[in-house]
């Protein structure tokens, strides 16, 4: 469809383009009668201001980019939810991309967003990414950037995180308080900071309680899936039938392990206690209900967008902005599995 | 940050703007040496072609809009997943908005996307929406539009759906085949077509098997939540303790009902058989595992985007396009709850 232009509107009404433009912006020096005529005709002909031309003038696209590792993840869907609702309220649209945990894809997506001239970027890193060149490129170009959850500690940008070490420490301390003596950890892959921090929290809790750390009790879930929960539970029971507690990197893995124990009639929590992480919805509907760590996903989305908005406003007004890190509190949710 | 312009690049190299522009587009009449110099300097100064100016020239934004009722819904996250991956492969970015089941919000979002000049819109209606004026506006403006899952039958646009009536019929027939004589239906709200069609499928299955329809066995879940599943299961047991089968509008409601039965020691499937709809992930991890209807979410996302792409290409090339409706097959998944 050919777009209607201001010129055509002006011609049809026998007035100047400037008058049409002023009428649409409700300038006081245009008569109410002319304004009414212009508005009526614009509506009739489906006139829309050309947003590309508006963008060229204002240099703002009123669009932000959001890159997350995966949409199908309970925690991230919650965050998307919070961000798109809040962004819309503040007049921003959100382009969402998922890296599928690939550094290569993430790099391309950063480039796409830069070329698209988004006003800012919200980023949760893929498990392969760190403080790499593509992140530096965003920072060098002074494009407002906030990392959340999966961050690179060394990147010079704002960050929103939880204290993963402390949260993991609390979860393992809870298992110990409930009487567990031999606790396995189903950890995440080696690179992401959250995976490292939860592992450190696990070790610290053992240390504090004078339980010797045993690297054989660490099972690494490369893809953090339900199936890995099942498989490592089976392997663990073969290798260490006397394990009496498991701390899992996330609820999905914990629920996988529980599903295996259920199948082979190993009783949770009587024989093995399990605690997950993130409070996925499913953790309330499984039998027994899963103890977990509540991660404030909505709050994380809101905090990340608020920081980005602050930086975008400074950027627009040529004001200085110093990146900040916001640490959100977590909460231990004790349910039936412990 | 001030953007680097072609003019500045030209000045620094002592050549014309036209030569810089041609060098970047790899025109044959510019020497390799000049091209190399231009590319090197552009890289050094972080030059990016101004996408707004490019958009103004090509009239394409290479962006599409996607409006869904809610992100936090297993089925819709799956669809988002499929659409953003496929769109990216074809060179499109996706702006995602959620209507939160509100007609008012959906209207505003359609307007935002029109003003943003997206090349096309993918839409799954809110439960309050139908073939309303905002849909007509998109169609009148000839903006490529595809509805999926939650559609308005009367809208003159492409659609991707499943045969909800047949899928519901099959689910209820399955309960009857398993010996159920008195089957309740936890239905969705009155307006959305999927809710109407599943209800009709339920009635048709009863009719085919000479079971008298009883409107008292219909419980309407206005918000289609886990809690409604719990509440209506409780109410139903009070009112009709002899019900021996439930067909629920979606797995979330079915899992809510099961959680209530679990609490009050009513045995599923021995005393009551339950079947859900959509095959949410949680239906495999609850005890007993929930029978359900598999809805092809990834295929639906891919089919919707493919139709939109076809229409956008026709639109760009001024070719005619006739809207089509694609009906995807469903599959009955028999598990432990029946």
UniProtKB/TrEMBL annotation, chains A, B:
<keyword id="KW-0804">Transcription</keyword>
<dbReference type="GO" id="GO:0000976">
    <property type="term" value="F:transcription cis-regulatory region binding"/>
</dbReference>
<dbReference type="InterPro" id="IPR028082">
    <property type="entry name" value="Peripla_BP_I"/>
</dbReference>
<keyword id="KW-0238">DNA-binding</keyword>
<dbReference type="InterPro" id="IPR046335">
    <property type="entry name" value="LacI/GalR-like_sensor"/>
</dbReference>
<dbReference type="Pfam" id="PF00356">
    <property type="entry name" value="LacI"/>
</dbReference>
<feature type="domain" description="HTH lacI-type">
    <location>
        <begin position="4"/>
        <end position="58"/>
    </location>
</feature>
<dbReference type="InterPro" id="IPR010982">
    <property type="entry name" value="Lambda_DNA-bd_dom_sf"/>
</dbReference>
<dbReference type="GO" id="GO:0003700">
    <property type="term" value="F:DNA-binding transcription factor activity"/>
</dbReference>
<protein>
    <submittedName>
        <fullName>LacI family DNA-binding transcriptional regulator</fullName>
    </submittedName>
</protein>
<dbReference type="Pfam" id="PF13377">
    <property type="entry name" value="Peripla_BP_3"/>
</dbReference>
<dbReference type="InterPro" id="IPR000843">
    <property type="entry name" value="HTH_LacI"/>
</dbReference>
<keyword id="KW-0805">Transcription regulation</keyword>
């Amino acid at each position: 469809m050919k777009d209607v232009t201001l010129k055509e509107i002006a011609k049809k009404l026998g007035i100047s383009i400037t008058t049409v433009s002023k009428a649409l912006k409700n300038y006081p020096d245009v008569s109410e009668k002319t304004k009414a005529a212009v508005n009526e005709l614009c509506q009739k002909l489906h006139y829309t201001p050309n947003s590309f031309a508006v963008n060229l003038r204002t240099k703002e696209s009123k669009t932000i980019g959001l890159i997350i590792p995966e949409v199908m993840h309970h925690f991230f869907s919650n965050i998307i939810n919070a961000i798109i609702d809040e962004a819309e309220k503040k007049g921003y649209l959100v382009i969402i991309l998922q890296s599928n945990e690939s550094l290569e894809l993430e790099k391309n997506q950063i480039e796409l967003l830069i070329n698209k001239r988004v006003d800012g970027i919200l980023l949760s890193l893929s498990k392969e990414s760190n403080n790499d060149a593509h992140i530096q490129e965003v920072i060098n170009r002074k494009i407002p950037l906030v990392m959340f959850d999966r961050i690179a500690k060394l990147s010079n940008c704002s960050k929103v995180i939880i204290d993963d070490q402390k949260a993991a420490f609390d979860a393992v301390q809870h298992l110990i308080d409930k009487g567990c003596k031999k606790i396995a950890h189903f950890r995440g892959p080696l690179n992401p900071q959250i995976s490292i921090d939860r592992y450190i929290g696990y070790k610290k809790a053992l240390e504090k309680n004078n339980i010797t750390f045993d690297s054989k009790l660490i099972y690494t879930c490369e893809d953090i899936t339900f199936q890995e929960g099942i498989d490592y539970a089976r392997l663990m029971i073969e290798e260490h039938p006397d394990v009496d507690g498991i701390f899992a990197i996330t609820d999905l893995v914990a629920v996988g392990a529980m599903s295996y124990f259920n199948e082979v009639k190993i009783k949770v929590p009587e024989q093995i206690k399990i605690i997950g992480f993130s409070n996925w919805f499913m953790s309330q509907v499984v039998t027994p209900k899963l103890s977990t760590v509540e991660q404030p996903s909505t709050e994380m989305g809101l905090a990340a967008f608020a920081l980005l908005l602050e930086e975008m406003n400074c950027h627009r007004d040529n004001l200085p902005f110093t990146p900040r890190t916001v640490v959100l509190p977590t909460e231990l949710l004790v349910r039936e599995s412990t």
